[in-house]
């Protein structure tokens, strides 16, 4: 299978994961399988590292290796804790389709993050793409009927805010991982360390929570079919994305990966019917945001 095909299948898995998260949230009792998904990602990335990674540790100065490990761990907190938690929470509050649309903001947030942490100035052609993405997101927020506005709903408002914060966290995670890879160029090991950091974070938070143990739901409380579907497809999507990077250019993988929003629309809106199929306004917003992604990675 070519790298392009692997990237498209990866996007399909991410689309399926978003729909499964939204569906599982209807009956979830605790974290809707969030911790389960992190464990599955950690196991999958470790297996990939053992199969394809550099199992012989390089001869790096101790300070350089330690700095890289810290950066990988911090990237895991940003992506597995903040980013993935936001993805799960937003999918339940505002649906998989809108959450997937907000994920298009990741390359937009990557612009200031990349400048601040990596001193990278983007190509001038990137800015029109960012404007298109922002336009698509804003279009999705406009009232259905001109001159009207829906009654604010606290849960939905928080869902939009969480989705935006999740995109920012993912952008930060990419920059931190990039800094770590500059010191220790082993992406599979970095991914495993990040997932392990996320798992340890949630374990530590549970240990130090003030409530009594008997009143706290377990970290693996939600292990139904929808939670397992989300966990496995997120891990599969990430795995196939790495395999695609071995076969083709990063820009190609990033652009094809953004097709996940189209798969989310098809799966959540028409196949599973976990939410209403998108109307013309949301469909247009999706296409505008996707066009912006295409411009950025052209």
UniProtKB/TrEMBL annotation:
One of its GO terms (cellular component) is membrane. The chain crosses the membrane at residues 6-22, 34-52, 64-89, 101-119, 125-145, 157-176, 188-205, 226-244, 250-272, 279-297. It comes from Antarcticimicrobium luteum. InterPro entries: EamA_dom, EmrE-like. Keywords: Membrane, Transmembrane, Transmembrane helix. Residues 2-141 form the EamA domain. This is EamA family transporter.
């Amino acid at each position: 299978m070519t790298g392009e095909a692997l990237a498209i299948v990866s996007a399909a898995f991410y689309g399926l994961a978003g729909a499964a998260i939204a569906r599982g949230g209807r009956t979830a009792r605790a974290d809707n399988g969030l911790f389960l998904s992190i464990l599955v990602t950690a196991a999958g990335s470790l297996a990939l590292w053992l199969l394809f990674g550099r199992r012989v540790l390089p001869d790096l100065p101790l300070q350089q290796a330690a700095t890289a490990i810290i950066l990988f761990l911090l990237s895991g907190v940003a992506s597995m804790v903040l980013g993935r938690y936001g993805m799960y929470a937003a999918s339940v509050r505002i649906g998989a389709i809108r959450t997937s649309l907000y994920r298009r903001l990741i390359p937009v947030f990557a612009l200031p993050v990349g400048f601040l942490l990596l001193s990278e100035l983007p190509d001038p052609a990137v800015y029109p793409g960012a404007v298109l993405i922002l336009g698509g997101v804003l279009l999705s927020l406009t009232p259905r009927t001109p001159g009207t506005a829906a009654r604010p709903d606290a849960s939905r408002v928080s869902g939009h805010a969480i989705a935006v914060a999740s995109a920012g966290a993912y952008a930060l995670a990419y920059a931190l991982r990039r800094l770590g890879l500059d010191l220790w160029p082993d992406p599979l090991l970095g991914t495993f360390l990040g997932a392990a950091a996320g798992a340890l974070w949630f374990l530590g938070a549970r240990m130090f929570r003030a409530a009594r143990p008997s009143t706290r739901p377990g970290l693996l409380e939600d292990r139904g079919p929808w939670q397992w579907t989300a966990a496995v497809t997120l891990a599969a999507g990430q795995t196939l994305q790495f395999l695609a990077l071995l076969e083709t250019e990063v820009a190609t993988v990033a652009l094809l990966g953004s097709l996940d929003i189209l798969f989310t629309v098809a799966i959540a809106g028409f196949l599973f019917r976990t939410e209403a199929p998108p109307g013309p306004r949301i469909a247009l917003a999706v296409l505008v945001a996707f066009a912006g992604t295409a411009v950025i990675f052209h």
